[in-house]
Amino acid sequence: MLLKSLVFLVLTTLLVAGCGGGSADNATGVSKLAQSQKCMDASCHAGSVSPGTGALIVQEWLNSTHNTNNGAGCADCHEPHPGHPESCAKCHGGGSGVATQNPDASRKCDKCHGLSHPNDIQVRLAPQHFGNMTASINNSTYRASYLSSNYVGNCRKCHNPHDPTTAMSANAEWAESGHGNVLSGARTRYEFKTRGSYEPVNLTFQYYCVRCHTSTGYIQFVTSGFSDLKPFAGPGYAVVQNYPVKVAPGAAQPADAPSPDKTKEVTACNVCHDNGAGRAYNWATRAVPAYRGYYNFSSSNSSPTVKLNNKVTVYPDLSDSNVCIPCHSGRGLGSMIYDAQAAGMDFSNTSTPGAHDRAAATLIFRTGGYEFIGRNYVPARFLHGKIGVANEHGTGNAGPCATCHMKTPTPHDFQPVVKDSTGTITSIASTACAHCHTGDPLQLTPAVLQTKKEGYAAAIAMLNVLKTDSTLPANPLNPSRSKVRPLANKNSDYNAAFPGGGANTMGAFFNASLLQNEPCAFAHNPQYTKRLIYDSIDWLNNGVLDNDVEAAINNATLAVNSSTGKVSLSNPIMGGNYIAAQAPGVAYAAAFAKVKADAINWLLGGPGGGRP
Fold first, then answer.
1. C-alpha to C-alpha distance for 300 and 302, rounded to whole angstroms
2. What are the pLDDT digits (tens) for 317-347?
3. Which UniProt keywords apply (predicted)?
4. How far apart are CA 517 and CA 529, in angstroms?
5. Contact status, residue 259 vs residue 233, Cβ threshold 8 Å
6. pTM confidence score
7. Which of 6, 55, 422, 427 could form a disulfide with 418 if both were Cys (CB 3.0 to 4.6 A apart)?
8. Secondary structure of the chain: what % helix, strand, coil (to 5)?
């Protein structure tokens, strides 16, 4: 009997009260452990098993700070009636038999936790639970929170109700990740819960942000066979839908209509974890099928308007990593540009498909980049797409995302490397790398990986430089002197620099956006990434694929700001500037030469190198 391992503190008050006094206050001086002894008796709940974890509920509670810090006993959560039932009542009647079976839904957690309890550990140490629905960020957007409307009374979507303590380190890791960042623009820039569609997923040109920028929207999407994109609001709130509308040339889309539900969601625990019965706290990975995605696009203000939809892209079945793919496969593919060309796109006056952010899956599985005709993009030596598939190289069966990003000492920060305060890689945390890169021709060390990262950043910076033409006159519509000329109707002329080559120019700009918004592309698929950058620079240099990339980089110049007389160059991957705004001079020339050398060394393997 489990009670033999416990200290028996059965006092008179306990014998009378049964499961306890039903209050978090402990005015009697009797410990929560003592108050809960009757509940844990072998004839009562000693053998009760958690429906979420399958573990003994008694043992889970004993492990928690609800017990060890004398915080809350059985009756504090399962009130109202402490005699539930009294032992005598089992045979002689009496006792109500009434206890709250779901204290979370009944808001019993609020007795000790929440904004009405200023000393609550959540309020003191994790106010992100509650966010801030009245103050704003930059006076424009409300912050997100863990306890958005759909999570009120649903603490168990992230916490084991009987032992919220043991997994606290995982919760803390998650809170430091992008998935738990309540201030990120990915959570706050729009009312993402309103940006959904009631139209079929394969046909709609309306917003579908809801599927990745909210937990509720994601779960609706993946549990509906990737079809449900509907907007939502918390219980009791009216649902508001925002979607793009046809506007006059040059006009902006109207601002989103506000939702009466002011809470905004992060990517919560139950997005990735579900035991098949709606419970997340056993940490089972949510079962998600292999992703089938539609990349729809409408060139809204161009004539003719090109509409691309109803074309599915199928990703491989990656087991646990299937959870990641729907939100890390972007919103546009380079191949869509060829589809648009075939549909009669006017490249001199049009909008363009966009890849969106963190589209790692499109690089790993080579679905995303704009591939120039006549060029080979199949990597000569590449296994990253097979990591965690059929135990490739002993990497198990969780798929590449979960294997690389979560086989670490701190899996819920999703970081395969450790970086210092400057962003420099100091160690490799993921154990997956060593399965292949031990004894590799180029041994993977933190220093090697940092060098690759710096080379990638320099190559993207040079691609951005080659997207411009320093000889173009300054123009209010084109202050950066882009080779793609912005037009007054908010479309662009992709034929301007190289007449008739609009598809390739759009493709080069697409690649720049795809890669700049995927800062780890250099690791996800190195050779594919290099070839996309190389060919994009090759085209943008002179409108011909003639392998003059080294010369293009060496001959590149920065445009002088016509207002200030200064030049500058930002670091698109690591932030900050390679060259802070300054007048052209010796320091500028030296800094620019270093960026060029780093780009050439990474992209071509060094001076004199060829296409990667």
1. 6
2. 999 999 999 999 999 999 999 999 999 999 9
3. Signal
4. 13
5. yes
6. 0.92
7. 427
8. 35, 5, 60
